[in-house]
Amino acid sequence: MVHLTVHLPKEIKFCGPVWLRWMYSMERYMKILKGYVRNRHKPEGCIIECYIVEEAVEFCSEYLANARTIGIPKGVEERIESRSGFKVIMTDYRTFVRTLYPTKAKNEKWLQAEHKRSFSSWFKRKIETELARLENTISQQIR
C-alpha cells in the first residue's frame, strides 16, 4: 500500500485529478439504462424507447409547470369535499383507528388493510349514533 503513494503524484500529473476520470457517475447512469430493459432479446430498442418517453415527460412537465390548468379549480374541489362531509368522516375514522391501535397505526400497509376490514362497520355505528342524537351533523347526501 505504501508503494501506491509513490505512483499517485505521477498519475495526477499525467491525467489530472481523480474526479475528472472517475467512472462512478457513468456506472450510475448505466444502472438507470439497465432498468429500462424490458425485452432481453432487443435491449437497445427498450432503452431507446424508455429514454425517449422519459425525455418527453420531462419536457412536458417543465413546459406545463407554469401553465394554467383546465377543469375544476382547486378551491372548488375542496369546497365540494367539505360540503359532502367526506373529509370530516375520514379524519374521524383515522383518529379512531390511531387511538385504538397506536403502535400499528404507523404502518401504512396495515392502515389500508384495517380500513378495508373495519370501515363499513365503524361507519354504520357512527351514522346510527349521530342519527340518535337530536342535533346530528350528518349531511343529507350521506343520509
Précis, in short:
This protein is mainly alpha-helical.
Q: What are the defining features of this structure?
A:
143 residues, mainly alpha, 0% strand
Percentage of residues in DSSP E strands? under 5%
SSE string, helices as H and strands as E? HHHHHH
Measured on Cα atoms, how large is the radius of gyration?
Answer: 29 Å
Report the count of strand segments.
0
Number of helices: 6
N/C terminus separation = 79 Å
Largest sheet: none
The assembly state of the depicted protein chains is single chain
Structural class: mainly alpha
Taking pLDDT < 50 over at least 5 consecutive residues as the criterion, the unreliable ranges are none
Global mean pLDDT = 76
- Measured as a percent range, the helix fraction is 55-70%
What gross morphology would you assign?
A: elongated
Descriptive overview:
This protein has 143 residues and is mainly α. The protein is 69% helix and 0% strand. It has 6 helices and no strands. It has helices spanning 2-15, 24-35, 43-63, 74-84, 86-100, 108-132. The radius of gyration is 29 Å and the shape is elongated. The relative contact order is 0.05. The mean pLDDT is 76.
Q: Topology of this structure?
A:
Elements: H1 2-15, H2 24-35, H3 43-63, H4 74-84, H5 86-100, H6 108-132
